[in-house]
Write a structure and sequence with these properties.
287 residues; alpha/beta; Rossmann fold; seven-stranded mixed beta sheet; 9 helices
């Protein structure tokens, strides 16, 4: 316990230093996870089924989402948190999606995504904005709303569900990978540590709720046909186990201050999974 608390306090201090240096949570640091091949900028947690390759794992998660959404050439999609655009290119190539809109909170990522899609000759409307952008969209604007590893950052997520329902077309689909709390912290110390870790990651504590409460929020937003799949082992555990192996391949990574962002993320996921305080779910709901 002492060793963990020492490491925890050290991580807190280190992250405060990062904030003082104005390091951003959303930037182009994804390049560090894509050194082989370097032309990719994937940034999700990946779906680690029969692979130890980050690009493959990220594509598999994107395909898992795309299959659940039943994307096709007629889809009119909005992606909330598209990163550097790799998943948009994948969905265009895999499913023939041509009507693509998206918002992302990092201006540098938006700029890179726009460049990558232009080079791939894909038309898309991508903007530097947050998830509240759907409030400015007309009713029944999209057939699909997608949020991969981003919905847990949304403020007032339960209210956002209502806006999502409004802008979806009849029988439109909302598909997300999101974090769920399977059990309450066992004591005050666990609760304090969990709150601190979530705060460091920029995740509102009120977003980490039980699966039943999550489904209730979607139902209250008038969503139907709600389907959930626990993908924790293949996503959270897979990423946490892969990261240190990847670091060993590139010794220079550990000396880079920004690398601590990923190393700490892996440690946080490992601790929360060990105490069964966090699980990852694929959520699908229909208007």
């Amino acid at each position: 316990m002492f060793a963990f608390l020492f490491g925890f306090v050290s991580a807190i201090l280190l992250l405060f230093v990062w904030k003082a240096l104005a390091l951003k949570r959303f930037d182009l640091s994804e390049e560090l996870l894509n050194l082989k091949p370097a032309e990719h900028h994937w940034g999700n947690l990946g779906y680690w089924e029969n692979t130890q390759d980050y690009t493959t794992a990220c594509k598999q998660l994107a395909q898992k989402v795309g299959d659940s959404a039943a994307l096709n050439h007629e889809s009119e999609m909005m992606d909330l948190g598209f990163g550097c655009g790799d998943q948009l290119i994948f969905w265009h190539q895999k499913y023939g999606v041509n009507s693509i809109s998206g918002v992302n909170t990092s201006q540098s990522q938006v700029g890179l995504a726009q460049k990558k899609l232009r080079q791939a000759k894909i038309n898309a409307f991508l903007h530097h904005y947050d998830h509240t952008a759907i409030e400015n969209q007309p009713d029944r604007s999209f057939s699909h709303l997608v949020a991969v590893d981003s919905a847990y950052f949304f403020d007032d997520r339960d209210q956002w569900f209502k806006q999502a329902h409004r802008v979806l077309k009849p029988e439109g689909r909302l598909v997300m990978t999101d974090l769920i709390m399977p059990s309450q912290p066992g004591d005050f110390l666990q609760e304090f540590i969990m709150r601190s870790l979530l705060w460091l990651c920029g995740i509102p504590r009120e977003n980490i709720i039980s699966l039943d409460t999550y489904k209730q929020q979607l139902s209250e937003a008038s969503f139907q046909s709600i389907e959930t799949e626990d993908i924790s082992d293949t996503v959270l555990t897979g990423f946490a186990e892969w990261l240190p192996k990847y670091r060993q391949q590139y010794e220079g990574l550990q000396s880079l201050p920004i690398w601590q962002k990923y190393q700490t993320t892996g440690q946080i996921l490992s601790w929360l999974r060990k105490h069964d305080l966090l699980r990852c779910y694929l959520i699908t709901a229909q208007r």
